[in-house]
Amino acid sequence: MSKWPPIDEPELRRRLAMDDEEFAAFIRGLVSELAPRDYGPDVLTQAVGYPWSRPPGSFLLRGGDVELLGSLAPAERDGVLARFSAAGGGRLPVLSIGSNAAPEVLARKFAHFDGEDDRALLALSGRLHDFDVGVAAQPTMYGSMPATLFPSPGTAVATTLLWVTPAQFTQLAWSEITYRLGELRTRFDVDESAAGFDRVLVFVSRFGAFCPDDHPVALAAIPASGRTAPALTQEQLLDAAAALALGPGADAETLVRAIFEDTAEVIAKVAATVHQAALPFASDHWTPYGGGA
User: Fold this and answer.
1) What is the rounded average pLDDT for all residues in the chain?
2) Using the 8-state DSSP alphabet, how is residue 202 labeled?
3) Contact 209, 136 (CB under 8 A)
4) CA dihedral 20, 23, 29, 30 (to 10 degrees)
5) C-beta separation of 288 from 182 below 8 A
6) Is-contact 103 119, C-beta < 8 A?
7) Does residue 98 contact residue 51 with C-beta atoms inside 8 Å?
8) Which H helix or E strand runs over 236?
9) Do 259 and 266 contact (CB within 8 A), yes or no?
């Protein structure tokens, strides 16, 4: 990528370029406006199920329809890959490390677009080298600890590379509220092809990677080879965050319920505790977006 994708919306550009102090004030303002929400058993099931189901391999998404790339003949598969990833094709490579690899999530985010191209994308499953996937030191409003990257030399972690239109990219940028945009220069190898890419766009958490025992932990739902970090399930990660924020005896259910029923108070407690148990993202292979064209 020779330049940043065009971001034409001033408010989005301003938010992406915020420093940590500006962003903290922005989030406090958002949280102060949130009203209590109803909590039911399905909420916890949804939260601990993150990053949710995704196909067993690369796929084409057209609206709500999913077609596995591996089901195509080799020549057709190569043609699809070339068409979506062509340098002059207008699409952008955005790395998905969590829920954005789930077709249901992507279809929902892009359903409002009128153009067929803006409701379609190619999602390539593969391995990202020298990084691993952990979770942010901040739960979401739906209760999960969302994915984020941390450096891990020698690790090859399963991730998904989305080839998106500029409109889809802008939609993703709006939706990743607590993430910082940047370009990552490392190898991504495609599972079903000899193809690979050395530069991708990715969103990393502004809150850093959660370190419940003074070091980053991996998200067990995301497989990896050469992994050196301990791996925990989503429920175990929520248990650890709950104990920090709410005290001994608090668990995943306690934390998720509090997020729904007393959002402002629990987010303040998370900020005072869980945020302190984090490794900020930093890498020589990373260039953060600075708000320019």
Assistant:
1) 94
2) E
3) yes
4) -130
5) yes
6) no
7) yes
8) helix 234-246
9) yes
Q: Cβ distance 122 to 80 under 8 Å?
A: yes
- Domain spanning 10-284 has what CATH number? 3.10.490.10
Average pLDDT for 274-285 = 97
Q: State which amino acid sits at residue 182.
A: G
The C-alpha atoms of residue 239 and residue 122 are separated, in whole angstroms, by 35
pTM: 0.94
What does the alpha-carbon distance between residue 293 and residue 287 come to, in Å, rounded to a whole number? 15
Query: 288 is written with which tokens?
Result: 């953060």
Q: What is the DSSP letter of 1?
A: -
Two structure tokens written together for 150: 């941390």
Q: What is the mean pLDDT of residues 1-26?
A: 87
**Per-residue tokens: 93:** 């490579």
Residues β-bridged to residue 128: 157, 188
Whether 184 and 285 have beta carbons less than 8 Å apart is answered as: yes
